[in-house]
Amino acid sequence: MILIFCETKDGKLKKSAYELSCLAYRLGKELKEEVSAWVISGAEGEDFFYLKNFGVSEIYLYEDKNLLNFSLTAYAKLLSSLIDEKKPSLVLFSHSSQGRDLAPYLSARYSSPCLTDIVSLEIKEGKILAKKPIFAGKVNQDLEITGKSPLFFSIRPKAITITECAKTEPRIVPMPVSELDFRIKVREILAEVRSLIDVTEAEVIVSGGRGMKGPENFVLLEELAQVLKGAVGASRAAVDAGWRDHSAQVGQTGKTVAPTLYIACGISGAIQHLVGMINSKVIVAINKDPEANIFKVCDYGIVGDLFTIVPLLTEELKKVL
Questions:
Q1: Closest CA to 208 of 131, 287, 107
Q2: Residue 130 CA to chain centroid, in angstroms?
Q3: pTM of this prediction?
Q4: CA 254/CA 261 separation, integer angstroms
């Protein structure tokens, strides 16, 4: 069995759940093993039936309001019990804040191998092979994984393309929740109210860098993002200057994204930023410096003043859309 940890938000599965399902299904075909999902929710499980299009055979569902806020110790205890009972060969997580906590914690408990932040996982001639970016994404390292089961992996978000792979009728198995270990417990989450969607979930991202010259000018990007139904991102320089919140930062020390369209405005293209967005399907760069590094990776480049170009682009897209 291959076990995937499906994260939820507001009773709905995150996109990473479908990414893991697609990957696990392909691996399961090679290993001749079924795919099972591990889900925690405080809402009814209607949304989880969408996994039927992604080759999932069983959904182990834990419903308890005390589990809605992530707790490393509580989640790990529940998942350990399931691993002990089902003995999966592989356990897959998204390389999110939760996955980065759980995967190494559990691998240490089982003295099993753990690979984090990988972008590719496959079976070739009976060998388990992974690809992991190193040196700030400048190089991909090819690795062969050996060791006793279960093997633990965290997969970089957006590294796997979501495609419906197999129709199933997943059996939802309600799981008992008792004697939770809350040595580490989140007491409260203070969520910031945002009008735009999160960059990790967006299909279109409009990002600004040092060239925006100040926080007040990001309204230009917000207007463009609103027309495109996208999110507003930022480079580290813009975040360090206090112009945008860290939650919008794209790059090595921020978030990794791979939208359909990425528009970089006033961003020079430092390697630390590029590793966070280089897998975007289409990259558009707007910068007045024709030698900016961002032009080496973009699909479309516009050399000019972003304060002139972005408003014109917004107005034209309003007409077209």
A1: 287
A2: 18
A3: 0.77
A4: 18
